[in-house]
Amino acid sequence: MRYWLVMPCAGQGRRFGGPLPKQYVQLHGRSIVEWSLATFRSDARCAGAVVALAPGDLQWAEIARQALQDVLTTDGGATRSASVRQALRALAGRAGPQDWVLVHDAARPCLTRTELDALLAAGERHGSGALLAVPVADTVKYAAAASDTRPTVERTVERAGLWRAVTPQMFRYGALCAALDAAQAAGRVPTDESQALEWAGVSPALVAGSGANIKVTSLEDVEIAGALIAARGGRAMMRVGSGVDVHAFGPGEAVMLGGVRIAHSHGVVAHSDGDVILHALCDALLGAAGLGDIGQHFRDDDPRWRGADSREFVRAVLAQVRQRGFSVVNADITVLAEAPRLSPHREAIRQSVAQLLGLPHDRVNIKATTTEKLGYLGRREGLCAQAVVLLAASASQLDSST
Question: pLDDT for 293-309, tens place per residue?
């Protein structure tokens, strides 16, 4: 079998109360939406994914550039059902009427492969669709509607037969499109896809899921989700690497630092462009991922790298780091030199390195110091850079161990 994934991701998280919409909050080096996509992206049965975004969403572009280029996107709507319908339209011509579509919340990062397998098997058996749900275990109270701020108990609700609907939910492409269209035509707004199918006379199968498949709605939920993901990883989630690079000054009129050209009385003696910041950064990344050092990957006697732009080195190293299942959390870089002065260029270097790493600029720190005129650096014979990076196990690596 195969299925298509649809993910509404247009919510602004007003109840969440954080500085970002909840789907973009970071957990162990990945955004929540990346974790929410992970189980599907590692599943060969998933034919493709469409994410419905709020118009003008800038956060998605930042993470997609590095890790999610294969995920289709479309503008979402004002409600969940409108966003799902937009994503379904984006599948027109790709999905057939009888193809399965799974809808999963962007802020539900703890889905396991076991739950996904159970849902797919039940949906196939039932024929018309299924959804993950959790039996209600707590006593349920119905509150009088007189006051939202001071609710009072009106009655206790019999919990027998009550389930909490979660996601993913699984339906035929044609049936789901028709049910959502019918609900819209009738002026009804379903709170989930199952409700739209129920209005159309369909009774989906309930598949018992895990209570750990939580939807992040509060800052407390972020801590819970992070702990669940860490516990499932069963391995060291964080890796630290350090790197150092030195180049002597030579003929020239500029040096490259962090991908930024800085005018100076000298250039550097180097096979490539001699960017000590990016070379130290490469060594730190390679070290954290257990991939050796920059000299093993870009030999200084290889004519391919003569005069090379060191940003290409960083891109190549990042590809290897991600292939090993890691993502960059942050980088801290120190330049040691009497000259050139870094302060006028510090922010440009920071922005350049952050862009290379695909990180917000506040996760890259650039420092500069001298050696108080001691040694070869004090004699202005060259310059040096040190880099420290933190890597986190990526969604795909941790998912493969669950």
Answer: 998 888 888 888 888 89
